[in-house]
Specification:
The structure is a homotetramer. Chain A is α+β, with helices and mostly antiparallel strands. Chain A is built from four helices and five strands; from the N terminus they run βααβαββαβ.
Chain lengths: 138, 138, 138, 138
């Protein structure tokens, strides 16, 4: 956590009061926290756009009764070992599994890995969640 | 434009310098302008979520050689006259037309109208752009 | 409009019946139309990703009482004449204006132009709607 | 996995060949798999829109040196025990932690829980990944 600095911004009275409602609704402690969050969100977006080193989570929903899909998922993750940090497997019901795969690496490489996993036969739904290594967000 | 007020926020030094880069990249005049923009963007999102009166633009790409599509598009717009403000038709080439339809009304009604127009046979691509009447954004 | 071909796809019975509900809800005439729409949507996304020649609409909400904003908006559009096809100005109320600017050009150039217009002081909200010239969507 | 049925769709020749390129790029085994994926993606979206029972992943990036944040995160998860299935904690570096929280429940409840966790002081970035319990996706 870096050194804290202060700066002031000017804003229309009506816009500020609408913002204050939003801050309260979302459960933020104060305006500063809400604004820092909005800033960090834009910086995460920029890291992905610029193709920097990022972190992410690949979420995969699949039916483990489909022959081969679990093995292929595991095989692909081992193949991409340099980028896969760890994965967690959740048994949703008798058939449906949710797998969360935490990854890190260059944005384009992570996107390609996610595309590969999500397009596997037997995978019902997949999403890549873009986040950051956090290094530049302090 | 309402009365201007000032307030100050505290932020980590490193985060502020990354934000300053972003402000410059996007061509903002200063930090206040960039933060006001982020705030208004969240308020527009909330107006749509809450189903309030909103403004929007329905963008439709279609081939005017397809029989019936232009007539149906016009017919549907007249039918939804209470919500359609005006539309603009652009000839992209010999076949392709771009139509921008400015609309206003309750969010759910506007979404239903957009779905209706975008699913028409002959329409190649459609998007609903969510914006605001601006009343609460001052 | 190109020559029509047919191909068949295999799908789980339950998935097909959920899809049929969706097709009806969205007002599609039949499954083919809904699937073609989904395909075209992905192709439009790919044109933007690949930085190809695209079409788009920049939607700008602003208060025309703010000194200078209308002139700057017009000035910037003339400056980007090669990319701006036409624009439409809507008077939402005494203060609020909605401007829809139809643009065409390389995806990265269009994005930069949109960023420039949306970050102008006095602009309350802006969105870039990504669509296509339609050439590859037949 | 349900019983397989077949149906055929008609499509313009040019559109089909662009789609075939896309299928290959994304690594799909065949067109059917790519189309089923597009259909399931829309059905997941509809489950969230309709507020049905869904599954999701809340991804939280935070600095564990910030006093209280780890405890608060754990406390809130225990408080929402009915919705939190399991969570996984990844040490990205000396300070940065990534936490993936698998959740299930009604869409609006899950969204509220995610908002609560993401707005905590000390949380740098958070995302809610929307997926499905998979029950209707077979």
């Amino acid at each position: 956590m870096g050194k804290l600095v202060r700066f002031s911004i000017s804003i229309e009275e009506g816009l500020l009061s609408s913002f204050d409602e939003l801050v309260q609704e979302r459960g933020y402690q104060n305006r500063s926290e809400a604004i820092r969050d909005a800033i960090r969100r834009q910086l995460v977006y920029r890291e992905w756009e610029a193709g920097e080193e990022v972190a992410g989570v690949i979420t995969i929903l699949y039916d483990h009764h489909r022959p081969g899909v679990a093995e292929t998922l595991t095989g692909l993750q081992h193949h991409a070992l340099a980028h896969v940090i760890v994965s967690m497997h959740i048994h949703l019901d008798q058939s449906n599994c949710l797998e969360c795969i935490a990854v890190r690496g260059e944005a384009r490489t992570i996107e390609a890995l996610a595309d590969r996993l999500m397009s596997l036969k037997g995978v019902k739904h997949g999403e890549l969640t873009a986040t950051s290594t956090g290094k530049k967000l302090t």
